[in-house]
Write a structure and sequence with these properties.
alpha+beta, 5-stranded mixed β-barrel, binds adenosine-5'-diphosphate, binds magnesium ion
Length: 254
């Protein structure tokens, strides 16, 4: 599981983000972008952040280190801004911490992007059905000249339909992915070649490791999947089923 560190100070809201993320300091002296459990989009977006972020890391993409941020009531108590105080109070317990990259800036297409790196990002987004990497909203940072992927909460959308119980992985497996909007599509090298490389790397064992990084308390029970182990197994089933097809890959076959 990703490690847990306590929040020691709320610093400032990050106004750009739709999910009201904030900058916080933590007990390990780190500075993190905090994605709050009480931000209204629910815990599943935090689950998607960890699964897809950790998968990104394992396929060799740069992505900030993730931690679970333990937020205690006394941090909220001394917050002057009422809106922030409400958010903090709604977020006591474990939140997602994304290691803050100081001095990074948003990708705007000006930088030269390595074509194989671009293809890896497209492949990851296609596999996980990430819809949040458009020109309007690239969710890519440039830091020390390198490209970093962030913000994977909008991927794995299938889990939003789990309220009545785990759905059918075959449907997600067969679902195409619309690449037309993707910020790196034009820059990507041969996706079929990247697919060969990455599908040799990503397997059920890796997916099991990735899903094991999610904190138990974010894996809310649904009918038929009562404990965290059932939910972890469901995520592995969905992603493994999708890996066995290629409708999701732009230009892919079968
Ligand atoms: N680790 C980070 N380091 C520096 N800036 C970040 C980091 N994570 C996010 N940001 C900044 O905050 C903005 C919002 O974060 P993001 O993860 O995209 O949240 P949202 O889900 O609200 O879009 C990003 O577009 C980026 O400008
Ligand atoms: Mg974003």
């Amino acid at each position: 599981m990703i490690i847990t560190v306590p929040v020691t100070r709320y610093v400032t809201p990050l106004r750009e983000g739709g999910s009201m993320p904030g900058i916080v300091e933590a007990g390990d002296l780190g500075t993190y972008v905090c994605k709050f459990r009480g931000a209204g989009q629910g815990l599943r977006v935090l689950v998607a952040e960890v699964i897809v972020g950790e998968l990104a890391r394992r396929i060799g993409l740069a992505t900030p280190r993730l931690v679970a941020l333990e937020l205690a009531a006394d941090i909220a108590r001394y917050e002057a801004d009422e809106e922030v105080q409400d958010l903090l109070n709604a977020s006591l317990g474990l939140n997602l911490g994304v290691d803050f990259l100081p001095g990074s800036f948003g990708y705007d297409g000006q930088n030269e992007t390595d074509a194989e790196l671009a293809a890896k990002v497209v492949w990851l987004d296609a596999l996980t059905a990430n819809v949040d990497r458009s020109w309007r909203n690239p969710n890519l940072l440039v830091w020390h000249g390198d490209l970093w992927v962030i913000d994977h909460g909008a991927s794995l959308y299938f889990h939003h339909a789990w309220g009545g119980g785990i759905t059918d992985p075959a449907r997600f497996a067969a679902q195409p992915w619309d690449s037309s909007d993707h910020v790196l599509l034009e820059r990507a090298s041969d996706l079929v070649k990247t697919d060969v490389e990455l599908s040799n790397l990503v397997d059920e064992a890796m997916l099991t490791d990735v899903v094991a990084e999610v904190p138990d308390v974010w894996l809310e029970p649904v009918p038929g999947a009562e404990d965290p182990a059932d939910l972890r197994a469901a995520y592995v089933r969905f992603l493994t089923a999708r890996l066995a097809t290629r409708q999701w890959l732009p230009g892919g076959t079968s």
